[in-house]
Amino acid sequence: MAGSIVEEDLTIEGNVSSNGGGIDVKGRVVGDVSADAITVQLGGSVDGALSAKKITIEGKHNGSLKCDDLKLAASSNVQADVTARTMETESGAKVVGKINITGGQ
Fold it and tell me: CA–CA separation, 27 vs 6, rounded Å?
């Protein structure tokens, strides 16, 4: 699976999408991000909607989040309305917002 990286020294103002690939955010995105897989790295941040099959957050996210599988690292700081099929949260993760875990297949 091909991937795109938003480097640490980069700020993107606008929407970012990848068809059939993943996006690693090490810098800052002000806008919506959609891909098959999204990782917001430690030190990275997204202000906008996240949409993917799999999302991992180690940094900061503010907005909304929709995915099948969500993983929140201990370092994550999320202020979002969350809709996910499954969610794994490490001790220390911070989440503020409405959370809807649907479960199922």
Answer: 6
